[in-house]
Amino acid sequence: MNACVDLIERSVAPDASWIRPDIFADQALYRLEQERIFGRCWLLLGHESQLPEAGSFFRTHMGEEPILVTRTLEGEVRAFLNLCRHRGAQLCHEDRGVAKSFNCRYHGWAYACDGKLLAAPGEKQLYYGELDKEEWGLVRVARVESYKGLVFGNFDPDAEPLADYLGNMAWYLDILLDRRAGGTELLGVQRWRIPANWKVVAENHVGDEYHVGFTHGSQLPRPIRSRAAPIPMAREIRPELGHGIGVDVIPEDVSPGERGGFDEEVNEYLRSIAGEMKERLGEMRPRLFPIHGLVFPTLGMIPILNSIRVIHPIGPGEVELWSYCMVDRDAPQQVKDILVQRSIAAFGPAGAFEQDDSANWTGVTRNTVGQQARKHRLNLSMGLGHEGEVAGLPGEVGLTASDINQRGFYLRWVREMTGGPA
Amino acid sequence: MTPVDAQLLADLQLWYAREARLLDERRYDLWLEMVDVGVRYQVPTRYLTAQGNVGDFGAWTVDRELTQAADVFLIDDDYEGVRTRIERLQSGMAWAEMPPSITRRIVGNVEPGEVLENGGIEVFSALMAFKSRGPRERSFLTAQRRDLLGRSDGDFRLRRRTVIIDDTVLMGENLSIIL
B173 and A193: CB-CB below 8 Å? Predict the structure, then answer.
């Protein structure tokens, strides 16, 4: 533990203006992350729309832990470790579906959607009626809370409420989640493995407007598809608590549709909801267009292309990225279809943007494993000391492209890893 | 069992071999000539799901595992999308393919399906695709292709392709090559 604290203090500058790649490669740090980051932070499980009826379920992960998320017969969302309490066998093997109960295939213990142990074969004859079924229900994820459709879990029973954890970030998330009365829904999930450290992926989501011009050079001279326009530059905003978001502030004389370069069908839809948005979000927020962001530690988002994703760590050198399309639930089907097609043309494993991102993340991870590379600092100093404020925008703002959000991410990471107050 | 049209099968096998070679040789310009301007090129996502009626093998369909109505694909391109995907490589900044991946596509199990009234033909085939970017970046996948080929100027043109990857989680960093 002390060795880890020493390593962390040696590897991240007090102002996070540099880091050493030890934090990407070290096995002991990775194990500590599982406990201190993934064991204590609020992690995205999914969206209420993925559980449309009683008995709906899907599988996911929290850190490296396999998780089963269900909707109970009473309509409540619950999350469990996906293992049978009897001998630890994997309980649910399907990715998603609807079930009345979950039966372990090893010895047949059966659990209800709310996690209660319903029955064990031979309860009377073999256990002499002495098995305490109350005691042997599924292991619940200690806390499950929703924020406007997004469902989060936390292993720490003493964790602060989700709303406090999100802090000012919620004000920005509402631009996506609360702009319409009907809320949002998640469509599908693209899942793929990238041999990269999870923080390399996370820091690219939380900030890093800087990389767009070069990494995504293949997309700049021409649009992703003939009907898409180039992505505008974002302002980097560090709401607080290690979360970060990049937003485009749309000038008064430009419509959000024009700014985003959407199809006419989408523009028309955006015009049709402008009044509702203003009513729900006020004057300022309808003019903010979130481009990218991250809820610490691993909920990434590319809102301008309708993608939200979870960066699941699988050892220090690999992640499994789960990317969902998020759309307004009450949008016309045609609008949803256009947005989805646009999203996956740009993001996901075959996306014109993300192919090149994944190549970078892999390269960083692979090439900083060596003992020599690990000794050297990597730079995160852009805009340090030039943070500012913009009236009406909660949080600190990078006045132009800036590493402000990545510094916030790593400072939060250090606080969590060294056990200090968040 | 319908009798096999030996000439048709030979023509199809040759067409698929040529397509695979052009892609492996990165002659995307020539490959694009094999693609109809009305093409739909899709790669569904795939999930582990329970089968409906376990006693009935007829209900054990692959389709249940694939992208459903409210769902996403990995790729869902029209001709414009396919062309843009290829033009991207010519930008000189498509880093995932710079330098280009070394690839090998092996297409087998070519099975002609239904012949449509307009002369189009459904074809099932199996694909093995290998991609190497050096010894530490190698990936391999297998997939079913469900194609619809049209005919024009005496040759086949790809009108529809659905690539069903034999995995729920895509391995190998990204999908930067045409399947």
Answer: yes
User: Would you say the ipTM is above 0.85?
Assistant: yes
DSSP A353-372: THHHHHHHHHHHHHHT-SHH
- Tell me: the pLDDT tens digits for B125-177? 999 999 999 888 899 999 999 999 999 888 999 999 999 999 999 998 999 99
A263 is catalytic: no
Start-to-end CA distance of chain B, whole Å, equals 31
Asked if the A2-39+167-418 domain carries CATH number 3.90.380.10, the reply is yes
Cβ-Cβ contacts under 8 Å for B158 (sequence gap 6 or more) = B19, B34, B35, B36, B39, B41, B147, B148, B149
For the question of residue A216 being annotated catalytic, the response is yes
A232 residue type, one letter:
P
Q: Catalytic site residue A357?
A: yes
Chain B residue with CA closest to A349: the answer is: B174
Looking at residue A342, its amino acid is R
Q: Which residue of A has its CA nearest to B87?
A: A218
C-beta atoms of A195 and B173 within 8 A: yes
Q: Which residues have CB under 8 Å from A377's CB, separation 6+?
A: A13, A18, A19, A20
- A96–B47: do the CB atoms touch at under 8 Å? yes
- Structure tokens, A264: 């006419």
Are B174 and A192 an interchain contact pair (Cβ–Cβ within 8 Å)? Answer: yes
Q: Considering only residues A191 and A236, tell me which one the structure prediction assigns the higher pLDDT.
A: A191
Q: Does domain A43-146 have CATH number 3.10.180.10?
A: no
Which tens digits make up the pLDDT trace of A367-376?
999 999 998 9
Per-residue confidence band for B109, with pLDDT thresholds at 50, 70 and 90: very high
Q: What is the 3-state secondary structure (H, E, C) of A107-157?
A: CCCEEECCCCEEECCCCCCCCCCCCCCCCCCCCECCEEEEECCEEEEECCC
pLDDT tens string A352-408: 999 999 999 999 999 999 999 998 999 999 999 999 888 889 999 987 789 999 999
CA gap A156, A215 in Å, rounded: 38
Q: State pTM to two decimals.
A: 0.95
Domains and CATH numbers, chain B: 10-165 (3.10.450.50)
Look at residue A420 in the predicted model and tell me its pLDDT.
59
Residues of chain B contacting residue A368, judged by C-beta atoms under 8 Å apart: none
Helical segments of chain B, H only: 6-24, 28-32, 79-89
Closest-CA residue of chain A to B64: A97
Active-site residue identified among A107, A164, A337, A386? A107
